[in-house]
Amino acid sequence: MAPRLPLLVAVLAICLLPARGCVLCDPKVKKELDNLRTAYLPDHLDQQHHESFMLRVKQAVKEFNDLEIDENSFMGVIDQHTLEKVSWSLIKDIKRMTESAVKGELFVKEFFWMLKIQKDIYARHMARFQKEVFCPNKCGTMLQTLIWCQTCEKQVHSCHKSVFCGERLVKVHRLEDLVLNCELSWHQAAEGLTKYSFYRVWKNNTESLVSEGKEPTLSKPRVGPEDEGKYRCVLGSVQKTPATILSFTVKVLPERLEEETLPTSADNLTVAHFHDATKTK
Ligand SMILES: *[C@@H]1O[C@H](CO)[C@@H](O)[C@H](O)[C@H]1NC(C)=O
Questions:
Q1: Cβ distance 233 to 218 under 8 Å?
Q2: Which residue lies with its CA nearest to atom 8 of ligand 1?
């Protein structure tokens, strides 16, 4: 959670540029292609075809990026994890081809067929990356390190969404524990987060700091009527804009009565089930 990234925050400005195939950003893929040229082609393809073959291969790999530029398919960026997956898939197939020792025209044909299949695999991985990894925050600001396929540079991308992440109503019975949780699902994956600050917001619209730290929760044992009211959580980031702002309205209900804490019908069901199980033994 400590600030661990350069304050350089990049803006996605990629859309109109023809992206280099993202997989070529992985040095392992480059090495595998070099290896193909120097170690495999000499014994398996006429010398005169080497150069044009390699050019066509590089072109085909670049064409992996012929995807619709769209938040659902491709934005010209990839993360390290997805890059590892797509490049591993491609390298595995290149190795499989070179191990089969197929030669000449058949080799060329099979190689491009393999690349066509890899292109589909790549598109699927990219769609998944866009859906699940790229800017998963629905509100607030999330920083994530991405690789720009155009230049293969790693930069920090800032996913800006609406500043406020909403308001939550929290009901708690008198003398029980109040817990306000400010953590959102994407916080774990976000970079450049600093700390969670909880404020009590008074009726006169001033606020006072209640707690501050790496813990995403504010806890208060044995609440009383004086704890009712508005609270605010601000998750800071290395940028000027906070990562998340959440509001809470706390309502303190009367003390819970004894019988409400007796086993619920769900507990009774579990007990009945247990008895059945012992009978069948
Ligand atoms: C606002 O209300 C709080 C709590 O009632 C109080 O402590 C504080 O002094 C008030 N501030 C102003 C500026 O009136």
A1: yes
A2: 206
Say if strands 153-160 and 141-148 run parallel, antiparallel, or are unpaired: antiparallel
pLDDT, one tens digit per residue, over 55-100 is 999 999 999 998 888 888 899 999 999 999 999 999 999 999 999 8
> Among 199, 200, 201, 202, which is best to mutate for testing ligand 1, by the most ligand atoms less than 8 A from CB?
202
Cβ < 6 A, ligand 1 pocket = 202, 204, 206
Q: Is the pLDDT of residue 178 over 50?
A: yes
Residue 182 confidence class, pLDDT cut points 50, 70, 90: very high
Instruction: Output the pLDDT for position 13.
Output: 41
CA of 201 to the centre of ligand 1 (A): 10
Q: In sequence order, what are the residues at sequence separation of 6 or more whose Cβ sits closer than 8 angstroms to the Cβ of residue 197?
A: 209, 211, 212, 233, 234, 235, 236
Give the whole-angstrom CA distance, residue 240 versus residue 217: 22
Tell me how far the alpha carbon of residue 25 lies from the centroid of ligand 1, in angstroms: 57
